Automatic annotation (TrEMBL):
This is DUF1116 domain-containing protein. It holds the Pfam family AllG. Gene3D superfamilies: conserved protein of unknown function from Enterococcus faecalis V583, Enterococcus faecalis V583 domain, v583 domain like. Transmembrane segments: none annotated. It comes from the Bacteria.
Length: 462
């Protein structure tokens, strides 16, 4: 008998508790080492859809193709151009973050950003005039994602704003993102006061042209290489971009130095640790877009929030959005602000998580572990959970603390539904009242229903 048990009774037991905490708690009370696994059965009613998708011929191959395209993309910063030029935006046309939205359903920060864009473009002289014009439908706005573009927080893009232009040198796609304004009271957080408009006009007149000239003089800049370096220097490329911004500035400084406004441009970029975020978003968008439109693939190619809804898009279902209510992030607040001041989650910046950075790379960024519980092991645990719902490990984005293991990349709808593990996103928190600006930063998860709805749509496809 002892031989057949393989010496099991002669060794210290190693216990893994799955699901309910009752067993784990009882063993812990007896000083028995136990490892808990956060698992729950798939939601009731999803079994048939899971069987249909997972049992379909070619499903695994479709996912392999889609994630292979995402991870083989080579995003390069190739230009900086105004939105009217690169996106063909007409006067009175705006882009915004997240899935489609109407003025009536827009949250405070989204309304504030649209009001500010109206003032910036000279379409209104006062915030009250702008709000009335938007309510009448005098301006049109649609998602950034519908134009191969992403925007942080409210993500509002107006014709005069300058855009980072990123080209995927492997698959040929192009993605854009606006320039980062800095922190505090800024348009992307819904602020629209005189100082916000003045800064944006300086960016239009000085920063944009200076960056255009520098990028063109430098030549295509390999963003993925820069992101890989930054990840090994303590960034996770969503809420922490200090290393990446420094590396970008190091690349472009010689070409910026000869310009007429070199000192103020260098001072602005160097004083804004988040400046690289927008380049990371455009790079992630280019990578995710390379994985689109693979029939049968259950790979997520976009996660985005507009302050009201959280939406995802999936490779195998084209441009269709699956949406649910955006949640309020759980995090740290600035000054006297608290949860009551927070708007539901907003922004296209979750494209970084979609492509394997941001919250999926938290183990690389010990400086921001307070967002996940205050200790480095919490950040490591958050990254480890993401391996359960992804299809691959990123070949370029590697985490030193995990022995240079690649970040989890390629969110799979079926794995999210089967495990109940939701993607973790680290993000800023906007004030719910238009004009407030940023009130904090923290973590948020998508509503589970967007994944079950996407699964049902994949199952229904012939």
């Amino acid at each position: 008998m002892a031989d057949r048990l393989g010496g099991l009774l002669a060794r210290e037991p190693r216990v893994i508790a799955v699901g309910a905490d009752v067993l784990a708690d009882a063993l812990a009370d007896q000083a028995v080492p136990v490892r808990t696994v956060d698992w729950r059965p798939p939601p009731p009613g999803t079994e048939d859809a899971l069987n249909a998708v997972l049992g379909r011929a070619g499903h695994a191959e479709a996912n392999a193709t889609a994630v292979g395209r995402m991870l083989s993309a080579r995003p390069h910063l190739v230009d900086v151009r105004p939105a009217w030029e690169v996106l063909s935006l007409e006067p009175g046309a705006f882009l915004h973050a997240g899935p489609p939205l109407t003025w009536e359903r827009a949250s405070g920060p989204m309304r504030g950003a649209l009001i500010g864009a109206m003032l910036l473009e000279g379409l209104a002289h006062t915030p009250e005039d702008a709000e009335q014009a938007l309510a009448r439908g005098d301006a049109v706005f649609e998602p950034c994602h519908h134009h191969h573009t992403v925007g942080p927080m409210a993500g509002v893009v107006s014709p005069s704003m300058w855009m980072l232009v990123v080209r995927d040198e492997e698959h040929g796609g192009t993605a854009c993102c606006s320039l980062n304004e800095g922190l505090g009271k800024v348009l992307r957080y819904g602020a629209y006061g005189p100082e916000v408009i003045e800064r944006l006009r300086w960016m239009d007149a000085v920063l944009g042209p200076a960056l255009r000239d520098a990028v063109r003089a430098h030549g295509p800049l390999d963003l993925l290489s820069l992101m890989a370096q930054a990840l090994q220097m303590g960034d996770e490329l969503h809420n922490r971009n200090r290393a990446a911004t420094s590396l970008l500035l190091r690349e472009l400084a010689p070409d910026l130095a000869g310009g007429p406004h070199a000192a103020e441009v260098l001072r602005f970029v160097g004083g804004n640790d988040h400046f690289f975020l927008n380049a990371a978003m455009a790079a992630a968008k280019a990578c995710a877009d390379a994985a689109r439109d693979v029939p049968g693939a259950s790979l997520v190619v976009a996660m985005a929030r507009n302050g009201t809804d959280f939406g995802i898009q999936v490779s195998g279902t084209g441009d269709r959005w699956f949406t649910g209510p955006a949640g309020v992030p759980d995090g740290l607040y600035l000054g006297s602000y608290g949860p009551a001041d927070a708007n539901p989650d907003i922004g296209d910046s979750a494209i970084t998580e979609t492509a394997g950075a941001g919250g999926f790379a938290l183990a690389a960024a010990p400086a921001i572990v307070r967002f996940v519980g205050g200790e480095v092991p919490d950040a490591v645990a958050a990254t480890h959970r993401m391996y359960e719902i992804t299809l691959a490990e990123h070949p370029a984005l590697r985490i030193p603390l995990l022995s240079f293991r690649g970040t989890p990349a390629g969110i799979d709808v079926t794995r999210v539904v089967r495990t109940g593990v939701l993607p973790v996103i680290d993000t800023g928190i906007a004030g719910r009242v238009a004009g407030t600006g940023q009130v904090g930063a923290g973590l948020v998860e998508p509503p589970a229903r967007v994944f079950t709805d996407a699964l049902a749509a994949l199952a229904a496809d012939p």
